[in-house]
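Co-fold these.
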Amino acid sequence: MLYSEIVMDHFTNPRNVGTIEDADGIGEVGNAKCGDIMRIYLKINNDIIEDVKFETFGCGSAIASSSMATEMIKGKPLSDALTLTNKAVAEALDGLPAHKLHCSVLAEEAIKDAIKNYYDKNGIEYDHEQFKQSDHDHDHDH
Amino acid sequence: MKVYADNAATTKMSKTAIDAMLPYMENIFGNPSSLYSIGQAAAEAVYEAREKIANILGCATNEIYFTSGGSEADNQAIRSAAEIGAKRNKKHIISTTFEHHAVLHTLKKLEKEGFEVTLLDVHENGIITPEQVAEAIRPDTCLVTVMYANNEIGTIQPIAEIGAVCREKKVTFHTDAVQAAGHLPINVKEENIDMLSLSAHKFHGPKGVGALYVRKGVFLSNLIEGGAQERGKRGGTENVPGMMGAAAALEEAVSNLEETNARLLKLRDRLIEGLLEIPHSVLNGDREQRLPGNVNICFEGIEGESLLLLLDAKGISASSGSACTSGSLDPSHVLLAIGRPHEIAHGSLRLSLSDENTEEEIEYIISEVPKVVEYLRNMSPVWRDLQEGKKDYVIQ
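Predicted complex below.
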């Protein structure tokens, strides 16, 4: 099999799919040209992620990575969510094929992008270095 | 329900092909180069297999060379034309933008070796014209190679007309007929074809066996040096069972071609009609000039690999031109060649039917695909933006 059982489970029964109407932070990474876009919606209260939803256009591992990453940050403080790495997402999924690892990178970056959006909207100071993204267009070399 | 709808990838072997092979594994296992009787019996079998294929293609027995498959045949044909071309100082080759990679990658390599390659535009319908070929031919053109029918979108090229243009201009003409052999009536003499590649596993024969037709008088060089097999043009002990299976499968495939195709056309057209009812979907490739079993549709707002995985969970085996299914990051070069934008090409679905598919299976596909498409669209941010009017639909 291309994918682990956990990936298939999160792909076929994704957790936290959807949107949050009055989201406190929305993040989006990827582009349709490359075949994957992830959008993350956060509901934040007292620096705790009370709710999280995602929408993903992409392959099985992109959907599974979104599902797993949202599960890993739900109910957690923002400081925890900011330390979530793509490696942790991939490990929680029991591994991803080498050419699919960028899907877990997208999940990490989508969450960070949503938190950054929350900080920006609320005028909260933050370290910009923390939110540096990889250059997807460059990576995908069109 | 289990539905195998990826016959352009490979086919299930027919009982006829298997039965034709077994004696050459169990009893007549001799090496055709050996003098004793089981060797000579194998040599006779190889001759008969070659003769059968030659008769079907309308050429002489000694114009058929067995290979390990379509890719090898393509490589050998193109390399041979390039080799003789270089000797005559003709280093220009004409092909199309949507050939199989066995052709395109060979041409890429030749470019690095100093050849100039012109790739003809295949238009939105996925068909080139003989006029394009005529206009592209130069005094230094040594080869025109155009596929008979495209492997992804099934469009059939005007091969006889292109062949006539090449013959008139005295340029060698090769066609990759891997998707066409056993599916369309082919006559290499009438269609002015100089070289033609075919592969047995695309018409219910075994994998690992193909053939290259080379018209008498056309230069052929070796990819594999060795013994005197294949008239010295391909060393290596013959895959006798494979050749027997290939010949038997091709014979069976063409025996009822008209009837089979009439039935397949009905299934194909019903499938296209049923799937195009999904909003914002479009058929890839010409509606009429396409293989009787080929359906290829793009659905806006979704990605092909997730579509395939969910269809697999419903028992449907299909394929897609999305980047994720290829292991690369770019979607199908064929869909890009007919002008589909990247984001649309990622959402393609190819269903390729064979004689074994039934009406019930077609109805099952028509009932399941819309559900899966809707499910994926409901979690797609691209689809949301289209629905909310933030972006314009590419497919109306």
